[in-house]
Amino acid sequence: MQDLHEKFLQQRQAYNKTPFANLSERLQRLSALEAMLNAKSTDFAEAIARDFGCRHVDETHLLEVYPSLAGLRHAKRHLKKWMKLEKRSVAWTFQPAKARVMYQPLGVVGIIVPWNYPLFLAIGPMIAAIAAGNHMMVKISESTPQFGEVFAKAIAEYFPDDFILVVNGDVEIAQAFTELPFDHLLFTGSTSIGKKVMASAAQNLTPVTLELGGKSPTLLDRNIDLDKTCQRVIITKLFNAGQTCVAPDYVLIPEEDLEGFITSSKKWAAHYYPKGLAVDFTSIINEAQYQRQSGLVEELRQNQIRLEPLFDDLDDDTNHKIVPQLAINPDNHLMAMRQEIFGPLLPVVTYKNFEAAIQWINERDRPLALYFFSQNKKNIQTVLEQTHAGGVAINECLLHVAQENLPFGGVGPSGMGHYHGKDGFLTFSKGKGIFYQSSINGAGLLTPPYKGFTKTLLKWLLRWA
Description:
Helix content is 44%, strand content 17%. The chain is an alpha/beta fold. The protein folds into 2 domains: 2-212 and 414-432, Aldehyde Dehydrogenase, Chain A, domain 1 (3-Layer(aba) Sandwich), CATH 3.40.605; 217-409, Aldehyde Dehydrogenase, Chain A, domain 2 (3-Layer(aba) Sandwich), CATH 3.40.309.10. The chain has a 7-stranded mixed β-sheet with strand order 10-11-12-9-8-13-14, sandwiched between helices. Strands 5-4-3-6-7-15 form a 6-stranded mixed β-sheet, with helices on both faces. Helix 8 (226-238) links the parallel strand 8 and strand 9 (250-254).
């Protein structure tokens, strides 16, 4: 633990030598990160596959490498504009003074990476931190040790450790990491751990960005193309075996569309994974998570909830693969309806009217994402105005996360703060307000003693402010 603190101090000393990296330096660092990603992407994908037991390398290239490269290239294109002094207006009573905002690096920041998308959820915050001019320490999840080792070696090959340091290790090391006096700490993970991270950071008054999770609803309106909707819902649920913080956690559907939804879901699951659990379908990350997923299904079965398997397979205990299933109208007290699922189980809840569906969503914790499939503009506006979620996709799932011009983050129990694109740059920057006084100004006219002309001028200002 002492070594961790010493590494932090080394980063602080290195940052203090160059506290405001210029545009050229930041672009060079982003280019180095891009070169590393291009050179090592297959190594990263293979390491992640070993950690999971089974995850197709092409799925990692699609869901982690591609958005990471897109984020890098976006930052490089726009960084010059982001770094410019921002003009702000000055009240007429202070003119001809000027006001500007300067976006200054925070210093040394910490990034805590989860296991489900370890590459993308490391690179994404790193892009923002580099663009903003910071140094950083990056803690990789103990559940992805193979990736952590490969990633640490790759970073060390391209960057000095007083600029970027990758930290691997167990829960005890992770706890020590959160106690370091970072200038900002970004954590991605569960709500329960997020609370502990925030408590540790509070000891140093370290500001935090918490990217958590929750039960992201998928609401289906009436009079939609049900088959096309199932096509998008099912693939975004089954990517990474449902181990995605913004995966559809449950579906709200008009009761008359239930059977059609079940039929279409099975069709599209077979289309995407013709060999079922074999080959392309991702394993659950470890034994503990596998047992948790099995427990969710077993509780549903014991409570005689209707289950509709999407594959004909049986669960594969050896390779930690769970058959994806639809759970039809499960009781609210069951774990599948109280906890974020984070696996291939998908509850489907029927509703009679649109207002009841909105109420259902609002009675629960505010989620990280909300998906609404509809062609009714009025209903779309109602959902946008009357529900809260970290992000929304209309007639789509998941893809809002890939938009670099949109902020990504939660609200309430699903997180606080956001990043991606310029929003990430701002998260890891201090917007420093600067007031430039003019050599010709009236500030000296409003000083004690408060009588005569000064008193008259003050009354006039109070009237016309």
